[in-house]
TrEMBL record:
Residues 139-248 form the GFO/IDH/MocA-like oxidoreductase domain. The lineage of its organism: Bacteria, Bacillati, Actinomycetota, Actinomycetes, Micrococcales. This is Gfo/Idh/MocA family oxidoreductase. Keywords: NAD. The keyword NAD applies.
């Protein structure tokens, strides 16, 4: 689950001429962030539907990807609807433009594989925008697990719930939100998914599912579970990693990380102690430097272009996550656990 994409393709320190296609709910934030990243310059934007959020500034709003390419860009950020990812990414690849595509990499795993293969064959930097990997709490959790502070990792559970996002029209909750948790669980554990099972519901009257519960096992033996919906009035973003020495709890809404150690205090109540595998020990909440995840994500992309060590998410990882996403939907439709 390495994010390192490969050797740099631009001279170290050279300003990256960036293009952005898609000026919607995510694109507007990318426009702001790209302008604030040292070593990046936003030189062209495109959206066939115009600039409804007013983020183009002095730049003309081009009608599509060909105009973006014609502006002489080095690299591009793709924030168009999911169904357009393959077409836009392949056009950029054909023009020799290094590209980061918003998650998921494409509408289907087959489509995503074509994109990933094209960028690999062309020797271009291709990345996927899984911004949760840049959340400060999750970055710190992964670092501490890798350093051995949890001992053996046993289980990862995630909960991502909240009100319906009006921006979503072309996919359901699995491809829009659960894809984050599927990606980050494999990334935290540094292991791919081996099998997965899922259940979904359709409660909002839309074509696509709006709730999912998924469980699975990674190749390393770590078990995972994901509860995701966008019909809850309660907004929750939590990831819990449980292991030999205790549990890390990441609140990705606030960027807080807490470690709850396995204690060694013996219960005086015999019946209670018979039921307890471990006891609750000290709880520590860490002071973490909080930087905007989207800013870190663009810095990672820039670093990959410059040949610096980079945690950018590879297109290969993006394809694996999409295969797991599709397996969850297949499992929900068939009632069968799917082996990857």
């Amino acid at each position: 689950m390495s994010g390192q994409v490969g050797a740099g393709v631009l001279a170290e320190g050279r300003t990256v001429r960036m293009g952005l296609i898609g000026l919607g709910s995510m694109g507007r934030h990318h426009a702001r962030v790209i302008r604030s990243v040292e070593g990046m310059e936003l030189v062209a934007v495109a959206d066939p539907y115009g600039d409804r959020h007013g983020v183009a500034g002095d730049l003309p709003v081009l009608p599509g990807v060909e105009g973006l390419i014609g502006a002489g860009i080095d690299a591009a950020m793709v924030a168009v609807p999911t169904w357009s990812h393959e077409e836009v990414a392949l056009a950029l690849c054909g023009a020799g433009v290094h590209t980061m595509v918003e998650k998921p990499i494409a509408a289907t795993a087959e489509s995503g594989q074509r994109v990933a293969q094209a960028f690999a064959d062309a020797g271009l930097v291709g990345a996927v925008g899984y911004v949760e990997r840049c959340n400060p709490a999750l970055l710190e959790m992964r670092r501490r697990i890798e350093a051995g502070e949890l001992g053996a990792l046993y289980q990862i559970t995630t909960s991502r719930q909240g009100p319906f996002p009006g921006r979503i029209a072309d996919v359901g909750v699995v491809k829009d939100l659960a894809t984050h948790d599927i990606d980050l669980a494999a990334w935290i554990a540094q292991s791919h998914y081996e099998r997965v099972a899922g259940e979904v519901t359709h409660r909002s009257g839309r074509e696509h599912e709006d709730m999912v519960v998924a469980t699975g096992r990674l190749a390393s033996g770590v078990i995972v579970s994901h509860t995701v919906n966008w019909l809850s009035p309660l907004k929750v973003r939590q990831t819990v990693a449980t292991g030999e020495k205790g549990a890390f709890v990441a609140n990705t809404l606030t960027g807080d990380l807490t470690f709850i150690a396995n204690g060694d205090v013996t219960s005086e109540w015999d019946r209670a102690s018979a039921f307890r595998g471990v006891s609750e020990g000290d709880s520590t909440t860490f002071a973490i430097s909080r930087r905007e995840p989207l800013l870190v994500e663009q810095e990672n992309f820039r670093d990959a272009l410059w040949g610096r060590p980079s945690a950018v998410v590879s297109m290969a990882d993006g394809v694996h996550t999409l295969r797991v996403v599709e397996a969850v939907l297949t499992s929900a439709a068939t009632g069968q656990t799917v082996t990857l």
